[in-house]
């Protein structure tokens, strides 16, 4: 489906002149420097995979997506999508590609949503009967019926995101790029969109590449994670592999009458966070005997509720960030 091989993307930027002499010289002979936004990355994504592509701002995610969609051409290396070059064969690739950017819309701002859908229907040459069937399918999950006659400019962010995702899948593409699809949404809207993405992936075998800073999206949707930093891919594997490499911590959530009463005997080697007035979360390593933590707590507190969980993906990713920062300092 997606083959990326030894891809580099460099930008040539002018060097800022600082002295009067340098400024005068730059009028005749300007100096430039090359900045590598993406540094020799390679990966393969099979049809039907749902992959999270994560990293800090400026890590190279957006540049990668722009190259995959054919907006930018790689400086070196090759990109193939279904056997087609997205830059030189952009039209072929676009017919099987859907794209959603959380900050931008592909819908017509002043038109009712249905008119935007009809324009996209004509662009992609979708038959009327098939168009009606697909709209009904999207309405079942995304609840679009009440929005069809509403201009896009009058929609809330959640309504617009639901509409944008439907628009990106109207032509039933085999590949979907999602950039921050749940940004700024409430819990209900996020869950509705996640369910729809998951359904399209499982039922229609749509390949999904998801970039987001919301680790809940990654944890609930993606079986595979690629982590990019400073233009290089530092991790490519499953959630479980990531947790085994950078995790190793579990947590206990306790709801007690007086969570501030913490037995001194359990403080060594654990991390305690206050979650609310009556709830604390205790983080401990896999090697720790849970009873060594719980018995003193049950002795000192009336425990009303308890739950044991694996370390969340957000903390694991934070450790990966920290690990890379430490390597940079040492280097």
From TrEMBL:
UniProt-recorded name of the protein: ABC transporter ATP-binding protein
Listed InterPro entries: AAA+_ATPase (IPR003593), ABC_transporter-like_ATP-bd (IPR003439), ABC_transporter_ATP-binding (IPR050763), P-loop_NTPase (IPR027417)
SUPFAM superfamilies: P-loop containing nucleoside triphosphate hydrolases (SSF52540)
Ranges for domain ABC transporter: 2-255
Biological classification of the source: Bacteria, Bacillati, Bacillota, Bacilli, Bacillales
Matches recorded under PROSITE patterns: ABC_TRANSPORTER_2
GO MF term set: ATP binding; ATP hydrolysis activity
Keywords in alphabetical order: ATP-binding, Nucleotide-binding, Transport
């Amino acid at each position: 489906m997606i083959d990326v091989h030894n891809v580099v993307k460099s930008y040539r930027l002018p060097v800022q002149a600082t002295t009067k002499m340098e400024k005068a010289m730059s009028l005749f002979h300007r100096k430039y420097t090359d900045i590598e936004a993406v540094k020799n990355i390679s990966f393969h994504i099979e049809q039907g995979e749902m992959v999270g592509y994560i990293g800090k701002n400026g890590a190279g995610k957006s540049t990668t997506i722009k190259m995959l969609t054919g907006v930018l051409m790689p400086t070196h290396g090759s990109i193939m999508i279904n056997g087609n070059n997205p830059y030189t064969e952009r039209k072929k690739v676009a017919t099987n590609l859907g794209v959603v950017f959380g900050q931008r819309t592909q819908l017509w701002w002043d038109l009712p949503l249905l008119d935007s859908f009809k324009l996209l229907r004509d662009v992609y040459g979708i038959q009327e009967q098939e168009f009606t069937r697909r709209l009904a399918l999207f309405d079942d999950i995304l609840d679009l019926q009440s929005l069809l006659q509403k201009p896009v400019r009058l929609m809330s962010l959640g309504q617009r995101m639901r509409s944008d995702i439907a628009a990106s899948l109207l032509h039933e593409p085999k590949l979907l790029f999602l950039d921050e699809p749940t940004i700024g949404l409430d819990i209900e809207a996020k869950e509705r969109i996640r369910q729809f993405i998951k359904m399209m992936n499982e039922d229609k075998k749509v390949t999904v590449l998801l970039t987001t800073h919301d680790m809940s999206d990654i944890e609930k949707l993606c079986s595979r994670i690629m982590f990019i930093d400073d233009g290089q891919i530092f991790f490519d594997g499953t959630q479980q592999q990531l947790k085994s490499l950078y995790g190793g911590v579990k947590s206990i959530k306790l709801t007690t009458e007086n969570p501030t009463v913490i037995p001194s005997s359990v403080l060594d080697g654990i991390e305690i966070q206050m979650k609310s007035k009556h709830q604390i979360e205790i983080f401990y390593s896999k090697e720790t005997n849970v009873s060594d933590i719980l018995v003193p707590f049950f002795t000192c507190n009336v425990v009303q509720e308890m739950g044991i969980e694996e370390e969340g993906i957000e903390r694991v990713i934070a450790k990966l960030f920290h690990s890379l920062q430490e390597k940079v300092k040492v280097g």
